[in-house]
Amino acid sequence: MILASAQTKPKRGNINANLLDHYRLIKIAADNNADLIAFPELSITGYERENASLYAFLPNDSRLDTMIRLAVDNSITVIAGAPIKIDNDLFIGGFVLFPDSSVRIYTKQFLHTGEEVYYKSSFDYNPMIRINSERISFAICADIDNPLHPENASKINTSIYISSIFFSPNGIFSAHDLLSNYAKRYSMCALMSNYCGESWGHASGGRSAFWDNTGCMIANMTDSNSGLLIVEKNIDSWTGRIIND
Question: Which of 51, 54, 122, 213 has its CA 20 to 30 A from that of 134?
Answer without folding.
Answer: 122
